[in-house]
C-alpha cells in the first residue's frame, strides 16, 4: 500500500493551487456567481527609491515546481544554491563569484546552511552535502532516510537536518556520521515543506507537521519540551491542516512561530510557556525589529504585531489576494514582493504603502537576507540580487 505522504507531492499542487504558492499566495476573491475578481493594483505615491547594486546569474530559472532556496549572508560573502545543483559563494560587495561548484546528478531540495567552516544543503535523494566554506570542495556527505525539505543548520560540532518522512537527525559536523535521530508520525495530509530548525546554545527548536513545536538536546536528541501550537479544525483534511512550516524565529529568550491555522505564538523558552498568541497565521517566514514582528498572512495582508504582547498595531490590506512574499525588515520600512514582479515598501511607523518598484519579469524567491539598508535575494529568473532601499529626500 502506498503511503499518503508520497502521493502528496503530486496531489498538493492541484489540491492547494488556490491556496499556496512557492513564494507567497492568498485565496482568490470571487463574485456572487463564483467568477474570479482580479484585485486592482494599488496606486502608490512613492517616497522611496531602490538601487540595484549588483545582479549575478546562478544559471537556471526557478519554476513553481523547484525547491524554494534562500541565500545566507555570512561575513562578507553570500552563499546560495540553485535547484539544479550549483552552489555559490559570492562577494556581498560586488556579487563576483569567489567559488562555485556543482553536484553531478542530484537536485537541491533544501539549503543553504552556513557555519563552522561548512556550507550545507540537502537533496531530493536524501543526501546532506557539506562543502568547505573556503573553497567549495566537498568535506563529507550523509545519506538520510528521505528527501530533505528544510535547510540543514549547524552549531558547534552538530548539524541538524529534517527529512520528509518526519525524522530529525543530529549529524557530526566533522564527518556527517549520524549521532542521533528521532521520528514523528505524520498526519494523513500535510503541506509539502518543512520549517528550518533553529539550533542555538545546545538546543534544537523544530516544528512538526502535527502542529507541535519541540525543543531537543542537540548532542543527544533528548526531548526537553514539546508544545502543541496548532490544532486541526474543520470537517475535511485540507481544513484540518496544522503544519508548522514557517521558520521559527529566535530573538533573545523568545521563539516566534506561526502555523497554517489562525495563530502566531511567542514562546518563552526559559519559562517554557506560551507568552502570547496573536490571531494571524502564515506559511511565510517572519521578520522583526527591536519592538515588532512583521507577518504576511495567508490572504496577502501584511501585519505589524507588538512583540511584547501580540497585539496588532496595524494591518496593510492593499495587497490582499495577491501572491505576496515573506516580509523583510529594512530600517524604517517593511518590504514585500508580489508575483507580478513588483516590490512594495511599507512604512513601519503607520503601515502606509510608500513605495512601488518594478523588479522586472522576476519576483523574490525564498527568504531574503538584510544588512543595513541592503537586501540580498534570489529571484525567479535564477539570479542573486543586491538591492538597497532609501528615502527620496
Description:
This protein has one helix and 32 strands. The chain is mostly beta strands and 393 residues long. It has a domain at 65-322: YVTN repeat-like/Quinoprotein amine dehydrogenase (Methylamine Dehydrogenase, Chain H). The strands form eight sheets. Strands 1-32-31-30 form a four-stranded antiparallel beta sheet, with no helix packed on it. A hairpin with a 2-residue loop joins strand 2 (72-74) and strand 3 (77-81). It is globular, with a radius of gyration of 20 Å. Mean pLDDT is 83; it is low at 1-27, 187-193 and 236-242.
Helix-strand blueprint:
Elements: H1 4-15, E1 48-57, E2 72-74, E3 77-81, E4 86-91, E5 97-102, E6 108-115, E7 118-123, E8 127-132, E9 138-143, E10 153-155, E11 158-162, E12 167-172, E13 178-183, E14 198-200, E15 203-207, E16 212-217, E17 223-228, E18 249-251, E19 254-258, E20 264-268, E21 273-278, E22 287-288, E23 292-296, E24 302-306, E25 312-316, E26 328-330, E27 333-338, E28 342-347, E29 353-358, E30 364-371, E31 374-379, E32 383-391
Mean pLDDT over the residues: 83
Shape: globular
CATH superfamily of the domain at 65-322: YVTN repeat-like/Quinoprotein amine dehydrogenase
Poorly predicted ranges: 1-27, 187-193, 236-242
Report the sheet with the most strands, covering strand number, pairing sense and barrel closure.
4 strands, antiparallel
The CATH architecture assignment of the domain at 65-322 turns out to be 7 Propeller
Total number of helices:
1
Q: For the largest beta sheet, what order do the strands appear in spatially?
A: 1-32-31-30
Radius of gyration, in Å, reads: 20 Å
Helix content: under 10%
Report the span from N to C terminus.
Answer: 65 Å
Secondary structure class reads: mainly beta
Strand content: 35-45%
Looking at how many chains there are and whether they match, the oligomeric state comes to: single chain
Indicate the CATH class of the domain at 65-322.
Mainly Beta
CATH topology of the domain at 65-322: Methylamine Dehydrogenase, Chain H
Extended strand count: 32
Amino acid at each position: 500500500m502506498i503511503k499518503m505522504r508520497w502521493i502528496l507531492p503530486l496531489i498538493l499542487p492541484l489540491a492547494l493551487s488556490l491556496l499556496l504558492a512557492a513564494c507567497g499566495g492568498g485565496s482568490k476573491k470571487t463574485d456572487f456567481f463564483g467568477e474570479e475578481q482580479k484585485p486592482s493594483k494599488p496606486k502608490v505615491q512613492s517616497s522611496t527609491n531602490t538601487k540595484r547594486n549588483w545582479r549575478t546569474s546562478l544559471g537556471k530559472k526557478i519554476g513553481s515546481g523547484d525547491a524554494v532556496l534562500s541565500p545566507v549572508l555570512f561575513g562578507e560573502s553570500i552563499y546560495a544554491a540553485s535547484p539544479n545543483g550549483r552552489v555559490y559563494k559570492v562577494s556581498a560587495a560586488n556579487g563576483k563569484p569567489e567559488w562555485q561548484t556543482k553536484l553531478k546528478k542530484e537536485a537541491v531540495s533544501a539549503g543553504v546552511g552556513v557555519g563552522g567552516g561548512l556550507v550545507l544543503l540537502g537533496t531530493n535523494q536524501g543526501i546532506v552535502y557539506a562543502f568547505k566554506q573556503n573553497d567549495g570542495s566537498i568535506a563529507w556527505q550523509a545519506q538520510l532516510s528521505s528527501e530533505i525539505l528544510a535547510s540543514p543548520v549547524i552549531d558547534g560540532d552538530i548539524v541538524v537536518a529534517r527529512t520528509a518522512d518526519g525524522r530529525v537527525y543530529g549529524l557530526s559536523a566533522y564527518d556527517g556520521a549520524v549521532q542521533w535521530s528521532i521520528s514523528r508520525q505524520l498526519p494523513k495530509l500535510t503541506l509539502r515543506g518543512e520549517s528550518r530548525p533553529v539550533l542555538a546554545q545546545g538546543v534544537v527548536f523544530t516544528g512538526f507537521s502535527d502542529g507541535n513545536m519541540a525543543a531537543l538536546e542537540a548532542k543527544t536528541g533528548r526531548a526537553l519540551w514539546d508544545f502543541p501550537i496548532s490544532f486541526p479544525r474543520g470537517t475535511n483534511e485540507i481544513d484540518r491542516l496544522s503544519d508548522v512550516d514557517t521558520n521559527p524565529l529566535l530573538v533573545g529568550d523568545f521563539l516566534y512561530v506561526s502555523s497554517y491555522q489562525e495563530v502566531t505564538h511567542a514562546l518563552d523558552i526559559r519559562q517554557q510557556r506560551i507568552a502570547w498568541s496573536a490571531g494571524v497565521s502564515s506559511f511565510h517566514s517572519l521578520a522583526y525589529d527591536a519592538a515588532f514582528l512583521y507577518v504576511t498572512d495567508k490572504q496577502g495582508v501584511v501585519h505589524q504585531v507588538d512583540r511584547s504582547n501580540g497585539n496588532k498595531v496595524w494591518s496593510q490590506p492593499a495587497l490582499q489576494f495577491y501572491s505576496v512574499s515573506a516580509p523583510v525588515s529594512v530600517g524604517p520600512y517593511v518590504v514585500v514582493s508580489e508575483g507580478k514582479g513588483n516590490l512594495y515598501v511599507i512604512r513601519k511607523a503607520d503601515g502606509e504603502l510608500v513605495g512601488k518598484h518594478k523588479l522586472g519579469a522576476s519576483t523574490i524567491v525564498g527568504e531574503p537576507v538584510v544588512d543595513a539598508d541592503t537586501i540580498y535575494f534570489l529571484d525567479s529568473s535564477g539570479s542573486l540580487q543586491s538591492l538597497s532601499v532609501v528615502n527620496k529626500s
